[in-house]
TrEMBL record:
Keyword field contains Cell cycle: no
UniProt cross-references to PROSITE patterns, sorted A to Z: 3_HYDROXYISOBUT_DH (PS00895)
Protein's organism: Shewanella glacialipiscicola
Designated name of the protein: 3-hydroxyisobutyrate dehydrogenase
Entry's family note: Belongs to the HIBADH-related family.
Span of domain 6-phosphogluconate dehydrogenase NADP-binding: 3-165
Gene: ivdF
Reaction catalyzed: 3-hydroxy-2-methylpropanoate + NAD(+) = 2-methyl-3-oxopropanoate + NADH + H(+)
Record-listed E.C. numbers: 1.1.1.31
Superkingdom assignment: Bacteria
Enzymatic class: oxidoreductase
Alphabetized InterPro entries for the sequence: 3-OH-isobutyrate_DH-rel_CS (IPR002204), 6-PGluconate_DH-like_C_sf (IPR008927), 6PGD_dom2 (IPR013328), 6PGDH_NADP-bd (IPR006115), HIBADH (IPR011548), HIBADH-like_NADP-bd (IPR029154), HIBADH-related (IPR015815), NAD(P)-bd_dom_sf (IPR036291)
Amino acid sequence: MSTVAFIGLGNMGSPMAANLLKAGMTVRVFDLVPEAMKSLADQGAFVSSTACGAAAGASVVITMLPAGKHVKNLYLGNGSDKGLLDVVAGDTLLIDCSTIDAQSAQLVAAEAAKSGIEFMDAPVSGGTAGAAAGSLTFICGGSDAAFERAQPVLKAMGMNIFHAGGAGAGQVAKICNNMLLSVLMVGTSEALQMGVDHGLDPKVLSDIMKVSSGGNWTLDKYNPCPGVMETVPSSKGYEGGFMVDLMVKDLGLSQEAALLSNSSTPMGALARSLYVNHARQGNGRRDFSSIFEQFAPLKK
Ligand code: NAD
């Protein structure tokens, strides 16, 4: 049975690594925050004291980190700190599941290729619930061979596995998706609040819009209005889920990508501005559906 190293055990990485253990794989884990490793150790993971220690000798390395700078530093090294590329064997498959800019993913893939090592970007969609349920969507960028080799580990954590193209293509597809998601979340929030302002019950309005032409993922799975869906972050004080700061990061990536390709993305630009404003009001660590509060009257 192959050994998988899993580095970055936050809201997403922790349940993803747990699903590898459930699938019977040998898993070594590392996170900068030691407490993040405790529950995985209880589930049978081997805890490493460094990222390089976890990765050395593993046949597959998976990373789930906040942003591009973390991914570059970890794989390529930083100053006197060795990078993962310095310690892994030539036949190791490297899979980065973080959402980062396509250029950073392409840079790491190119550096890995110099040593004959396969690196694939495989950002995910499905949120923390999808990570826990093992039903994530993986959006991969890399060679056909890397995509084939990744199947057993990705299938243990997800249901839909797409090959978007070569290095970086997974990241491009992912930020297109998240830009659309932010627009849907903002639009759904303002529509729901307008209905409430006119005396409608948000549950009834949600049921109507869900099966009408305004239906979308946020109404089906992630309603932003507290009390409409019991299990989602909006009904739990907007805790857990997908942080506003991470959405701001992704919308920044989508605007950088739009500049590079000279694409017109007015809705994405507006959504970024709204989310930046929301973060600046102290909401950065809350779930991204809390943007709903920007439209709701202030509580006295
Ligand atoms: P998080 O902040 O909860 O977790 C990131 C983890 O990485 C933290 O535990 C941190 O300590 C660790 N880390 C940072 N640098 C490290 C290093 N050098 N070595 C080891 N560990 C390190 O973030 P998250 O919500 O798990 O998201 C991770 C990535 O997945 C982000 O790129 C995010 O955009 C993306 N994503 C998140 C969601 C979601 O719903 N949360 C959904 C899809 C994609």
